[in-house]
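pinging the channel bc i need a second pair of eyes. not urgent but kinda urgent?? the chain im working w is below, pasted from the shared doc
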Amino acid sequence: MNKISRRRFLSRGVGLGAAVTAAVAVPHFVPSSAFGKDGAVSPSERITMGGIGVGGQGTRDMRNFMTCPDVQFIAVCDADSGRCQQAKAIVDENYANKDCTAYADFRELLARDDIDAVLIATGERWHALTSIYAARAGKDIYCEKPMSLTIAEGRAVADVAKRYGTVYQCGTQRRSMRSFAFAVNVARSGMLGKLHTLHSFVKTGQSCGVLTPQPVPDGFDYEMWLGPTPFIPYNSDFVRNFWKNHFDYSGGMITDWGAHCNDLAQMANGSELTGPVEYEGTAGFPDEGFCNVPVVLHVEARYADGVRLIMYDKKSPDIWPNLNGELSVKFEGAEGWVYVDDGGNVDAQPKSLLQTQKFEKQQWTDAANWQGHHRNFLDCVKTRARTIASAEVAHRSTTTCHVANICLRLGRNVSWDPQAERFVNDPEADKMIFRPMRKPWRL
């Protein structure tokens, strides 16, 4: 394995801006004190990482990565200086040193040639652009879901990852959780007979009133936080939560939970490199206030072979064996069905299918459920193999969510061509594949 030479080769000629060049004029090195408390893995075998976006999800990912002895976090970055310093303190405590460097601008972190891979856990408005910058800088990428804000962004990430030979893992970690993997394997094995329906519980978004402008807190780079998305005056509720409920900044719950549920459905159906061709649905939107994602929804998508993918905002006993509010999927075939949710609940019909279940019930938050997905990424960084949630696979799954949203926003049925990645004879829908970015950012 020769990661450093690969990095230097890939990053040769990549321009990240004069300011960044000046900031990294002095070369960075991993000091001997950064080898960790036990020093069990030699420096040449360590994967050096940086974290971009280190809030709640980013911190969870980072902590799990740091349980792996062959990982060394050496940098963190966040638009919130307080959060960035907290993340640095977590890393420094883990390695019993003070060697982690904190950055406000992700481009400075990416310009370091001693970083092999990055964790990207920003809001989804930044996922695609940060991934593209990282790939061009020669970094492998673990990026949280959903991988993109638009279909065009997802395609750009997949193309750039392929062009640069980037190892990319989308944070759809339920692919690697034992309970969800069990359900997928049952569906793929043929034990359910011919699949006909994939049920995806995606929940719905929130509504709120008008968000009034507030002063930007000290130490928070709000312009960098917004990045390529439209400007809106700062509001703490917007930054903490409600950005997820406006189409300019997110796809709502369809891309939040749907990035997991539809992804699992794609995997169970063996359609990871394609997607449904027809979408129909109904939705209710907030009448007023800031939020504009659906608060009521139902979407039915059909694959070319007739299999249906149905997205629900609520559970009913005629469909769902468990009516809890957990993220859930159910795969149904001619000879039975299998169900699994975030609480670790697994059910099936016939019950004999459960005899092959050989794992204990675990919540989605249990660390053991995350480590397999992170481990898969690290192993692929070393071997250059394709991850379980590669950029192309993640793009296809996320596209099912984006097309569903476009269908609901247009208020009518749409036809999608997965090969051309265009709507069929529908210029109005095609215009929603891409969104302009706020200057100076662009794909």
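so The longest strand covers residues 71-77. and Residues 162 and 223 are 30 Å apart (CA to CA). — does that match what u expected or am i reading it wrong
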